[in-house]
Amino acid sequence: xxxxxxxxxxxxxxxxxxxxxxxxxxxxxxxxxxxxxxxxxxxxxxxxxxxxxxxxxxxxxxxxxxxxxxxxxxxxxxxxxxxxxxxxxxxxxxxxxxxxxxxxxxxxxxxxxxxxxxxxxxxxxxxxxxx
Length: 131
What we know:
By secondary structure, this protein is an alpha/beta fold. It has helices spanning about 1-10, 10-20, 60-70, 110-120, and strands spanning about 25, 30-40, 45-55, 75-90, 95, 125. Strands 1-3-2-4-5-6 form a six-stranded mixed β-sheet. It is globular and about 40 Å long.
């Protein structure tokens, strides 16, 4: 019954779906590509999310998977850019750097703020240098 009520919510249902989208989904260790994605509910405000995984050969692989998952929830998205993450959990450090050939450089300062909220006890740094 609750699912039917949520579905009947229309825009409210989409806004609820947006609030359930995690701000950060990254691998727990290693160096890997990431994308910064703006997610929107139909006709509503958006939020930026970070997606980074070692399985991705290209930044587009990350974006395409995120777009598919979000579309299943009735959400739209656009890629704002990409880069790389170096996640070293033993040292409690994440470094954000580089760029995506296809999408351009993400705003690493935005990515860093998202990561700091998710990993408050980490040292998180960024630089525009590197690929």
